[in-house]
Amino acid sequence: MEQFVNWIIEYGYYCVMQYGYTGIFVLLLLGVFGLPVPDEILLAFAGYLIFKGDLQFIPTLASAYVGAMCGISLSYGLGHTAGIYLIEKYGAHINLTRDRMDNVHHWYRRMGRWVLLFGYFLPGFRHLTALVAGSSNLPLPIFAVFAYSGALLWTGTYIFLGYFVGEQWATISGEIHNQMVIVGGVLIVLSILYYLVWQRRQQKTSS
Fold this sequence. Notes:
It is a single chain. The protein is mainly alpha-helical and 207 residues long. It has one domain (2-206). Helix content is 85%, strand content 0%. It is built from seven helices and no strands. It has helices spanning 2-33, 39-52, 57-90, 98-118, 126-135, 140-165, 169-206. Helix 1 (2-33) packs across helix 3, helix 3 crosses helix 5 (126-135) and helix 3 packs across helix 6 (140-165). It is elongated.
């Protein structure tokens, strides 16, 4: 598994070095959509290349930002067109009923916009936010405002990080990525617990 991860990272470096802004765009699109791309590390690497003078700031940020926008939009479209169908067809196998998903969607329509804004910073979490937004029928304008603002905040943060730490970009970005994985896991567990408590209260209220 470690060899596979290292291969993905090395291939990502190669794509950025070989194809420049186009490589950044494609990798961010695929990574935000859900493929195993080390987005944060590659963004910091791109910032380091700006530090070295190999890339320019505006085209780098634009490539990463548009790639992230396209990736999150594809996830939203997939959730909007196929989310309910997949839940109805396969949800029963994992005890995910339509009523439970309706409760999730109800909560998401109230609070999910903030998850879209900050979910980028949680590896593994951001891939799900747009899918749930689409399947929850979150209006496209609301999705766009929060998801695209979050994409700009996220890409800009890691590119600036790689630029300002310079030669230390690999160490710093790797440590931050690992911490975000832990934080993301904790938040997912807390979200599940919150949902279970909320669902139980709803059942008591209805009864």
